[in-house]
Amino acid sequence: MTFEEIKQMDTASAMPTYARYDVALCSGSGATATDEKGKTYIDFGAGIGVNALGYANPGWAQAVAKQAATLQHVSNLYYNPTTVQLTDTLVRLSGMGAVFMANSGAEANECALKLARKYSFDTYGSGRNEILTLKNSFHGRTMTTLTATGQDALHPDCFGPYAGGFSYCDTTLEAFQNAVNDRTCAVVMELIQGEGGVVPLEPAFVKQVCAIAKEKDILVIIDEVQSGVGRTGTFFCYEQYGIKPDIVTLAKGLGGGLPIGACLCAEKLEGVMTSGTHGSTFGGNPVSCAGALYILSQVNDPAFLQQVRQKGDLLKKKIESFRHVKSVSGLGLMLGIELDAGIAGAEVAKRCVANGLIVLTAKTRVRLLPPLNITDDEINKGLAILQSVIENFE
Ligand SMILES: Cc1ncc(COP(=O)(O)O)c(C=O)c1O
């Protein structure tokens, strides 16, 4: 198919929910994608942080293909050895009590929100059900996770009424203290607000929130859908904040490119979601779980994670030296580039794509979420394009 044919078919058949670039990606290897004409792109986006080991990683592809050829799906009314290996691995590596397998970040967060309310209901009775989230956060596109998202721009009237029982606060201790009340059952935080512009929360703020929450038995839910699975150079970003959440959610990089989500909870919560209180037809799908098991076998390794930190430091240092770059935020391979006033991240991304480099945006910033195993050669090629695009602005 030509690009024009692909685009025309998409326009005629798909809901126009995405502002797509004029590019159709057809294949890939490592951190390099190829379009229908054979043009290659260095990929600093990894499908928005999904392709943890890049495109068509041989070990991952083999694990997935083997599972697809053995048992592609089984109802959650039955056990299967692949899914249970993943749940066991996730629980062991996190030191949490139990996990619920979902299919996406929003679904993992839905489980977290239901779990928090049920724990509070079971423990304290009705009425203590308010969930506090942070301004500038992003937690998903389902009705409830959209409500949880602390951005007015994502709450247009056309989707109302939104779910009740949510409130939003600024990322200051004072704002948090003012927002907490006797009805608060949980607080949700992304430690680095990804969609919000790669904005890390202050460690002191996070620690204070956790201390107050612990004192009042308010559950701390950490949304690691974007920052988890090694993205920031530790398996969970929260390790670098020195906290232990009650609930943590994962998705994106976990499946290496297959739809999957996970909601992990601390031991005290492991029995809360009893039979019939939650479920999913596809959650824990063996093919996605086989992909995830392979990802964990590679990523949950100190040497691999150290490389993520080193690559991130290198990218940060080099990009900070580019003309027009004001600052670079983030940790590991989750980076946000703040540009001089008047240079829009979206325009940089457009020019990068035209020059063979895929980057992401978040608010006004350019956002980078490359595959975690990106090679030095791919980093250098991508950086050369990024530098010439950014420095070419007047
Ligand atoms: C922090 C965070 N939470 C939740 C989501 C929603 O994940 P999904 O698109 O898989 O539903 C995202 C997606 O960008 C995210 O970045």
Model description:
- With 394 residues, the chain is of the alpha/beta class.
- The chain folds into 2 domains: 240 residues, Aspartate Aminotransferase, domain 2, CATH 3.40.640.10; 69 residues, no CATH class.
- It is built from 12 helices and 17 strands.
- α4 packs parallel to α9 and α10 runs parallel beside α12.
- The model has no long low-confidence stretch (mean pLDDT 98).
- The protein binds pyridoxal-5'-phosphate.
- The site of pyridoxal-5'-phosphate (PLP) has 14 residues, from α5.
Structural class: alpha/beta
Per DSSP, the total helix count is 12
The main β sheet shows up as: 7 strands, mixed
Number of domains: 2
Low-confidence stretches: none
N-to-C order of helices and strands: HEEEHHHEHEHEHEEEHEEEHHEEHEEEH
How far from one another are the termini? Answer: 38 Å
Bound molecules: pyridoxal-5'-phosphate
Spatial order of the strands forming the largest sheet: 4-12-11-10-7-5-6
What is the total tally of β strands? Answer: 17
Indicate the CATH class of the largest domain: Alpha Beta
CATH topology annotation of the largest domain = Aspartate Aminotransferase, domain 2
On the 0 to 100 scale, the average pLDDT is 98
- Helix content class: 25-40%
